[in-house]
Every structure is written in structure tokens, then in C-alpha cells.
Amino acid sequence: MFRAPRGTSDLLPEQQKYWRYIESKAMELAGEYGFGRIDTPVFEDSGLFIRSVGEGTDIVEKEMYTFEDRGGDSVTLRPEGTAPVCRAYLEHGMHNLPQPVRMYYFCPVFRYERPQAGRFREHHQFGVEVLGDPDPSVDAEVIELASRFMSSLGLSDIDILVNSIGDPECRPAYISQLKTYYSGFTDRLCEDCLSRLDRNPLRLLDCKVETCRALGDEAPRSSDHLCQPCQEHWDRLRDYLAAMEISYQVDHRLVRGLDYYTRTVFEVQPRDVGGQSTILGGGRYDGLIEELEGRPTPGIGFATGMERLTLNLQRGGIEVPEIVSPSYLVANVGAEARPAALKLAAELRRAGVGAILSSGSRALRGQMRQANALNVPYALILGEDEIQRGEVVVRDMASSTQETVPLQDFMGAVANRSA
User: Fold this and answer.
1) Distance between CA atoms of residues 188 and 191, nearest Å
2) Among 125, 130, 175, 115, which Cα is nearest to 35's?
3) What percentage of the chain has pLDDT greater than the value 90?
4) Would you say the pTM of this structure is higher than 0.70?
5) Structural domains of the chain, ranges and CATH numbers in brackets
């Protein structure tokens, strides 16, 4: 029997309410902040991600789904959402629009990772990007949006972690100190961190192996090695967050996993949850557009996983609205009444009312069991007698009571309620 590929999952109808709830809150807030929606292709030129994400990252070296298409081009399934948005910004001349340009998206992303709770090889993201404004007030607004998004979902038991990792001017000196520090503990580093020591030293701080984490606690801190412009940006950001009364913690270990980040990085994590606990992450990427051969354009954004948000909603016992379901099941007594039942169901839908046509081959009792199983509030019953008299039997499934009413009056009442 075929099964979903490892690291993927089916989103069944009964689970859809969580995603629709998350999407509705996300779109509502994005609109308040002036974001417009963008959708980019599910695959891109592989070079886009190699250049933007970084050749030394785990994503590029281990996790990307890359293949050669029939035209001989190397393409990659989208492993993250920011680079495609930046590519679209350049391709469509959005630098000519009033700046900054604010965009949000929902998209699937693909990474060949070891599946575990909250981590999949295909997962789905809600993300936002702001392109064209370097001011730290934009950082504060994006962090506020992340905080309000969590609150709107009912996720209140969370921590917002913030850090500054500097820029290409001051980061090399910091990385040099980081390498010097970790070089004294090579016997305690895991295999991955031994490799990172030369290729991507910042990622040493992000390792989840306990011995490496312990070393990270005493490692040099990026915020202590900022150049003057980065220090001013960092100080102003904290002033803005205080002015907006946003509670946060400075986490010197926070670096994020992509090479394009500069200055501000941040995450949202639930309290008292281990393992893969981060539910939202983002930061500033002021050099990314330039790396993609555009003119210098600052940017900042975040992304959050739909699956991990759903997991946290369920863990927290947060009730979400049920998806609106049909109000009526139209049943027929006898095959002769089937055309009339079909017509009534169609008329209800055209009037803007949800209706399901019963499985007409069943006896009436079976059709009523179907209505109960589908949790439909009312059943409408048509037999030959009702059709001849122009009536319909309206059965309340909760109370098991019913009444016979003129069909014309019933449809008139439906139309009035829908108006």
C-alpha cells in the first residue's frame, strides 16, 4: 500500500480548521500592517539558494531537493521563502515602488531533514518581508507583528528572543574570536561542529548537542563586538521595543541558520518545551538583494511553520472555530423523489446555503443516520406526497422533531436569512 513519503503528511478535512484559523489571523494582521500577498514558484534556479542561503550552510550542503530538469537546468524545490521574494522584487522592478515594499506569503518549503515532532521534509510557512528601509523602527514593527500574531492565535506562554549578529564590517573580527575560543575545545565538539569551526563558525552557537551548548554559554558574544553603526542600530531597536512595551529577552546564542542575516535576528519560542521548539524566526538581511545582483536594498522578515503552530495550538488546548459546514441534508423517500431532492439541493446552494444530497439508495432511516454522522443540523425530506402538495418535511436532527411546511415558504425564509 502506498503511503505519504517520509517526512510529509496529509492534511485531513478534520484538521483543516487549524490551518484556516491560522491563515485568517495572519491575513488579517498582515492587512493591518500594509502587507500585500505574493506567491512565488515552488521551484527556482538552484543558484538562487546557493548564493543567498550560503554554500557552507546545512540547507545547501545537506537538505536541498535539487535536480536537473529535462532542459538540463539545475532547479531546487524552495527550501525557504525569503530568497524567492527578493528575486521577485528584483525581477519585477519593485525598487521603483514607494519604499519599503511589504509582502507576505503562504508556501510549502522542502528540506531533507530527519523527521521528528514539528519538523518535516515538506512543511508550510507563513512569512513576511519588508524591503527598502534600514531603520530599526522597521525591525521593531516586524517583531511587534510576530508578537501580535502569536497573541491573536491564543499563544501567550511564549518568549521573544532577540540578538544582533553585526554586519560584514564587524562580524569577521567577532568570528575570529569565536574560532579562537572554540579551537581550545576541539576534543569536546561534536562532528558537525568540528566541520563548522572552519566553514560556518556562527553555527557553533546554534548546536543542540549538550556538550556544545555548554561551551556556547561561555563563548564570546556578538553584541559585545559590534561596530558603531551596528551598535547604534541595536541600541535604537531596544529603545523602540521598550517604547512599544514588547517583552523580549536578549539571547547571545541566537544566530539563525542562514548566511544572509545581518544585525537583528529574533525567534519566538514556547516556554518549557524542549526539542524543536522554535515556532517563528527571522531577522534582517541587508546584503541579500545586493548578493542577487541588485542595488543595495535593506530587508527584514520572518517565517513561521503552519505545522508547528498547529502543534502548539493543540498542546495548549486552544479551541479554534469549526469550518462552516452545510446546514441541510436533502433526503428522498423513494427513487421517484430523487430528481426533486436534487433540484432542492441545487436551489439551496444557489441561495447561498450549504446543502448535501443524501445517498439516495439508502432507506430513509439510513439517510437520517448519514445526517447525524455528518453533524448536519437539519434534514429536508421529500417523498411523492410532499412533491404533489408542494411541501417539504423539515427535521431537526438535535431534537428529532419535524414539521411539514410549504416548500415555497421554506425557500422564502431561506432567502431572507441569506440576504
Assistant:
1) 10
2) 130
3) 67
4) yes
5) 13-170+226-315 (3.30.930.10), 328-414 (3.40.50.800)
